[in-house]
């Protein structure tokens, strides 16, 4: 957009990043791992997509920290997400930093049947974030130390949203985007306003339900996480220096994958454990705490020798996996949610961050339509909500179901005990194959041909609704 050109629309993107450090390996485990799935990536992707698809739309990114992060944990991308990466022009840059390089392979074991391989690219989250930052041309539009507090919706249909920050400053914009993670302050403000409005109309049950959308809920899972240099890994059964590995058992799930190439050669370890706490309840206590190696490894006693090698991590972190419940809307007026702020999910299909990138790309495509001005903006945001919310909530549900299957937390398998399994009378090969088939069926949405089509369908729908609105106005 030319400097002297008035922008067609203005967008304020609220993001969350971790803090910075020059040396990843000198960080404590909490420093390197305490981040949310896809934190910050959705907002950065939106900025990149806006520069590509909506060059006459001005954007600003507001973040609460004083320095941009180089900290973070592992993150994976499925083939469907990779199409979005290609669409944004990031493929070449990301292949250079992928933990598994140009060999995006995932080995899956349960554990007796032969392993099967799937394409899956893995990254260190901070390296991924760095690439995204580098591909934003208008870097002067990134504003740090700006902690979001609240917003005020416009009174008239063509008014602007006022965004208020903790330092006492405010900005105005046509669209406020909440890309600020699972603990989203923007989601909190949006659903507080919706709940208060329902309360004022005497709709008390609706008000209570809307208010319940603010806080994340517990998934029933905790993850013990650690990072180890790949040179320290002694196992010979799986090529973990180049690939990713998963092993599952009753109520347990172990994942290991490379997240950084070169001299740092890091391997990300995640040991997932089912807890007695009911999913969907509020988690009490800190989400992330450092724990002893003995606590983290105690669940995997008696597993294969290669697992013992993988678990040779000296510093561990326990992370309570929380989710955002299915929201009735991602949009209110000129305010819109994307990424974990809208649909934080479990990690079982490696889809959380990718869905945030799809949010960002579709939103940019819709805002990039030349006829979308302030008057037409509600229609564009309506289409975004209608096209993205049902799909991504289905993805979240499938991810949760996939996790239950991967850890055999399904009714027909409950009768299998550790004693039966140890005696050789546990699950049969046929039962294991059925579990694997069911897991694969839950991933059918990832068919790569659908993601680009979804964007085109949304844009076409917007054009038709705009034409219909114009026609009705003329008559």
Description:
The protein is of the alpha/beta class. Helix content is 36%, strand content 22%. The protein is built from 15 helices and 19 strands. It has helices at residues 29-33, 41-53, 79-87, 91-95, 125-134, 185-200, 204-211, 293-297, 305-310, 340-343, 352-367, 377-406, 418-422, 429-441, 449-474, and strands at residues 9-15, 57-63, 74-77, 105-109, 116-119, 121-124, 142-143, 148-152, 161-165, 170-173, 175-179, 217-229, 244-249, 252-258, 266-274, 288-291, 316-323, 331-332, 335-337. An 8-stranded mixed beta sheet has the order 5-4-13-14-15-12-17-16. Strands 7-2-1-11-19-18 form a 6-stranded mixed beta sheet, with helices on both faces. Strand 13 and strand 14 form a beta hairpin. Helix 6 runs antiparallel to helix 7 (204-211), helix 11 packs parallel to helix 15 and helix 12 runs antiparallel to helix 14 (429-441). The radius of gyration is 23 Å and the shape is globular. The two termini are 35 Å apart. The model is unreliable at 18-39, 66-72 and 104-117 (pLDDT under 50).
Q: Between the first and last Cα atoms, what is the distance in angstroms? A: 35 Å
The shape, in one word, is: globular
Q: Which band does the percent of strand residues land in? A: 15-25%
Which consecutive residue ranges, at least 5 long each, have pLDDT under 50?
A: 18-39, 66-72, 104-117
Number of helices, counting only DSSP H or I runs of 4 residues or more = 15
Helix content: 25-40%
Mean pLDDT, all residues: 82
Profile the largest sheet. 8 strands, mixed
Structural class: alpha/beta
